[in-house]
User: Fold this.
Amino acid sequence: MDGNDDANISFIIMFVKFPELRHLSARYRRFSTNVEADTKVLQELLKNGTLKPHSIPLERVNIYHYYFNTEPHLDAFQKTLNRISKFPVHLDIRRCYVPTTTTTTTTSSNGDGDARQQEQQRSLEEAMEGVSISEACYNIVSKEAQCWACLHSFERCWKCESICAACQRTRLPPLANDQKLQDFQRRRRGRRHTQREKNKSMVVSAGANDLAVTITPTTATTNSSVIDDPSLEDEFSVFE
Assistant:
């Protein structure tokens, strides 16, 4: 269903129509992809029994398009897919960077020393939480995003990392990056095809030259043997 951006055709129908579905690709559907609405529809299908929990061997769902920004309902969508599938479902999108915060629990006891220690621990956790929130980025990125020049896999969105860590080139927006990557791959395939044709013509020319070298002496020998054969003179003398 890649590129089939028709609002009247939802990829959810595939879950109902094909109960043995394993891989579903519905990418580049900017106007017909609505993660919140799709999540609600799936949950309704689970409630009314149209879809049974853990009834589909679904393994992967692709829904990426170039105009994804942030998606607050991504976690609910992931959990709903996991609920209807027999396996954990892999999506082709993720958030750019969401740091995990770890909290430590301490046993409470009486005493000013313990109270002071707990206050210090709370202040440290709040400070760490502030740093984590400032570094977090909820932009949606493709898990398959690569640099057009060196094919380096990106970890962050192009706004967080404006320079490719591998080739040090300036990164492009996702759509421009993929178009340039496709052009680069198309030119490379064209060069390979041209080189193969050139090599093929060289092989044919070399084979023709070898064949000419092989045939020429044989022909000359055959002609001389025909002319020098004394028996032929008697045979042709009949016609004189």
Notes: The mean pLDDT is 78.
